[in-house]
Automatic annotation (TrEMBL), chain B:
Coiled-coil blocks: none
Subcellular location: Cell membrane
PANTHER family: HIGH-AFFINITY BRANCHED-CHAIN AMINO ACID TRANSPORT PROTEIN BRAE (PTHR30482:SF10), HIGH-AFFINITY BRANCHED-CHAIN AMINO ACID TRANSPORT SYSTEM PERMEASE (PTHR30482)
Membrane topology listed for this record: Multi-pass membrane protein
Source superkingdom: Bacteria
Name of the protein in question: Branched-chain amino acid ABC transporter permease
InterPro entries per the UniProt record, alphabetical: ABC_transp_permease, LivM-like
Record keyword Isomerase present: no
Species annotation: Streptomyces calidiresistens
Cross-referenced CDD domains: TM_PBP1_LivM_like (cd06581)
Length: 273, 471
């Protein structure tokens, strides 16, 4: 974890250095296969085809944003990646190995952390008990992980004895992220971490996500807040009614007039495909 | 309503504004009859009426209103009303000084009760001592009560305690609603009958009653897993209906498969016996030896369950009860742990079935009607779901009450009073007699949730009117 961290310390502002560092990281791992790959994914809810052949890949050390309107299939994609939904066709590959069909609680042991939509903290457990639950796959929680989470989220350290259901929405989101980190994930899947939060809190959470990424955790982020997500991400994908309509470096997507029109609410003369 | 307000306020906002404030104040003020103090008085008067009726004369067949007439005019009523009034006065008007003294003592950490509490918390030996004393008391209990109560203790309380601690694992810890719990009890009882050679169909080889227990446990485990595996994906209400259906299948099999079970005519079962060559003992008609045997089973199971509750398994159950999706996301195998809880509950129920059949020496299908599932569930809820002392206490009290009432009210009315007690309990103390800490938290949070949701609504009224006035 720390050596990857060293690669990342050179990161300034550019995307270029990120690309470089991911390249070295994957070289060090000695594998060309991306960390996570979704290949031609078809997912059905009954007769409704929610995903119509999605391709997506996340390389080690990256932050990837998945954008789209309500009902586009973002959460479905994420839930398929985390094993909660089984695809009817296509595969989920982790380090080039097929993992679709593996239950989500097993995938946790493969190093996938899932921060579900709507936070879903254990409302009647204390903050500390929640974090301990996050480390359930280990015999006992690693105190260094706990220290790391409390360092990232000092607010949680202050309230470690408090019952999670009485935390504010932002604190609950922090707790959900912290809980996922307790399982030492290599890849963190985040489902709308900004949902229902004040802009200031969203900014805080995205800053912390950046820090988590710099410490060596790869992030796949589902977001409605397109500008914020693309500022954090290295690359982005855009989903529309179950189909991937765009992909590319985050900077390009952020500059794309169609994205600006559809997700950032700017009126640009461009036809919407 | 706001539209009407608008038209009236456009002329002169000042005076109407104050009038509206007065109106709001009037509406906000609680009416005297909805004041909690008054509600409590009404409830206590209700208790007084019921109490007078229960303790007073009972009805006759010739004049069904005889008892009501006598009890509602006699001195018993005034005694009850006076006592309840006294309780109300003490509670409403003398409570504050007492509570103040208590809380100051508590904050200072002084006061005899508080000091005793810290000592209690700090010293595990003291707790062990208290537990040992309780156990000794329970062991000698049959010597202290009459034969009738010994029978109640053995035939009802001990059996239902066994059932209740099993159901507590399913309902209280894993959070699944199981209405077919008695089905496993029946499977256990019929296993005992079958393997001791008491059913019309002969077993391959006959076994001692004690040797049947592991077989019954395995049978119930298998039955529990067979039922659970396809159905545990269902949640809450759906699972309850499925278990209810399962119970009905088992019950109707016991009733109608006469050539195997003996149906409603039943079958006599050998009682417990032990024969080790150098030592042999036969359990007979005296209830006390059964009681000690049952006590042994209960203590052994409790030790096992308490250890489970504080293990990783217990934490997994808590997580599943709180949020299944989040539990799966943190790496808890939800299906496996739910199945485990279901199987543990089922096998406990099976043990209770063996003990029951081997005590009574007779079983028939009517011992396993669905009412008993509901009763066990109500014992668990009454005592406090998920809390072992609560479940034990709740079961003991709810079985003791109808037996106690047997001497004071007509037999057919006994369960009516039980029902009234359950209703009152669920209104005023939904967490149960001796709730687990987490359940208390849960209910507190529900109350706080409504409080915070109500607050902005109340505050929102003046804000909107203020916004309307300028326009």
């Amino acid at each position: 974890m720390s050596d990857r961290n060293d690669h990342r310390t050179t990161e300034g502002a550019g995307r270029v250095s990120t690309e470089k560092s991911t390249a070295t990281a994957s070289d060090a791992a000695g594998a060309e296969a991306p960390l996570l790959e979704l290949r031609d994914l078809h997912v059905f809810y009954g007769a409704i085809e929610a995903l119509k052949g999605i391709n997506l890949s996340v390389r080690t050390g990256e932050v990837v944003a998945l954008l789209g309107a309500n009902g586009a299939g973002k959460s479905t994609t994420l839930q398929t990646a985390s094993g909660m939904i089984a695809p009817r066709q296509g595969g989920v590959l982790l380090h080039g190995e097929r993992v679709d069909g593996i239950a989500s609680h097993e995938l946790v042991r493969f190093g996938i952390g899932h921060v579900p939509e709507g936070r879903r903290v254990f409302a009647r457990m204390s903050v500390l008990e929640n974090l301990h639950m996050g480390a359930y796959r280990f015999k006992r929680p690693d105190p260094r992980d706990l220290e790391r989470v409390f360092h990232l989220f000092p607010r949680l350290a202050e309230r470690r004895k408090q019952v999670a259901g009485t935390l504010s929405g932002g604190e609950q989101q922090m707790l959900a992220i912290g809980r996922a980190l307790m399982g030492k994930p290599e890849l963190l899947l985040l489902d709308e971490p900004s949902m229902g939060l004040a802009p200031l809190i969203v900014q805080q959470i995205f800053d912390i996500l950046k820090e988590i990424n710099e410490q060596g955790t790869t992030l796949l982020l589902v977001e409605q807040n397109a500008s914020r997500a693309l500022q954090l991400a290295n690359r982005g994908y855009v989903l529309e009614t179950g189909e991937m309509v765009m992909e590319g470096p985050a900077g390009e997507l952020l500059a794309d007039p169609r994205i600006r029109a559809a997700y950032l609410g700017e009126h640009v003369e461009a036809e919407h495909s | 309503m706001t539209a009407i307000d608008n038209t009236s306020t456009t002329g002169a906002p000042g005076p109407t504004g104050s009038k509206r404030a007065a109106e709001a104040a009037r509406l906000r003020r609680t009416a005297w009859y909805s004041h909690p103090r008054f509600k409590r008085l009404v409830a206590l008067m209700g208790v007084a009426l019921v109490g007078a009726q229960v303790t007073g004369e009972q009805g006759t067949n010739r004049d069904i209103f005889h008892a009501l007439r006598e009890n509602m005019t006699g001195p018993g009523l005034w005694l009850w009303v006076g006592a309840c009034l006294l309780i109300w006065v003490v509670r409403e008007f003398l409570r504050a000084p007492v509570a103040n003294a208590w809380s100051t003592a508590r904050r200072a950490g002084t006061g005899p009760a508080e000091r005793a509490r810290t000592v209690w918390r700090r010293d595990p030996r003291l707790r062990m001592l208290a537990l040992t004393a309780l156990l000794v008391f329970l062991v000698v209990l049959p010597f202290l009560v009459s034969r009738h109560w010994q029978q109640v203790l053995v035939d009802q309380i001990a059996i239902y305690v066994l059932l209740a601690i099993g159901l507590n694992v399913v309902v209280g810890w894993a959070g699944m609603l199981d209405l077919g719990f008695i089905a496993f009890f029946a499977i256990g009882a019929y296993s005992a009958a079958f393997w001791t050679g008491s059913l019309p169909v002969a077993p391959p080889f006959e076994l001692n009653n004690f040797a049947v227990i592991p077989i019954a446990v395995i049978t119930c485990l298998v039955a529990g897993v067979l039922l659970g595996a396809p159905t545990l994906r269902l949640r809450g209400d759906y699972l309850a209906i499925v278990t209810l259906g399962f119970h009905e299948i088992v019950y109707l099999m016991a009733k109608n498969w006469v050539e195997f079970t003996g149906g409603t005519r039943g079958a006599s079962v050998d009682r417990f016996s032990i024969d080790l060559g150098f030592f042999s003992y036969q359990w007979g008609l005296d209830p006390r030896p059964y009681y000690w045997l049952q006590l042994g089973f209960i203590v052994a199971l409790l030790v096992l369950f308490i250890r489970l509750e504080h293990s990783r398994v217990g934490r997994a159950w808590t997580a599943i009860r709180e949020d299944e999706v989040a539990a799966a996301a943190t790496g808890v195998d939800t299906v496996r742990f739910k199945l485990l809880a279901f199987a543990i509950g089922a096998s406990t129920s099976g043990v209770a079935g063996v003990v029951y059949a081997s005590k009574l020496g007779f079983i028939n299908s009517e011992f396993f009607i669905v009412l008993f599932s509901v009763l066990v569930l109500s014992y668990v809820i009454f005592g406090g779901m998920g809390s072992i002392p609560g479940v034990l206490l709740g079961t003991a009290i709810l079985i003791w009450l109808p037996e106690f009432l047997r001497d004071t009210v007509p037999a057919q009315d006994r369960y009516m009073y039980l029902g009234a007690l359950l209703v009152i309990m669920m209104i005023y103390r939904p967490q149960g007699l001796w709730p687990s800490r987490r359940r208390v938290r849960e209910l507190h949070m529900a109350e706080e949730g409504t409080a915070t949701r109500a607050m902005p609504a109340a505050g929102g009224r003046p804000a909107t009117t203020g916004g309307d006035t300028p326009s």
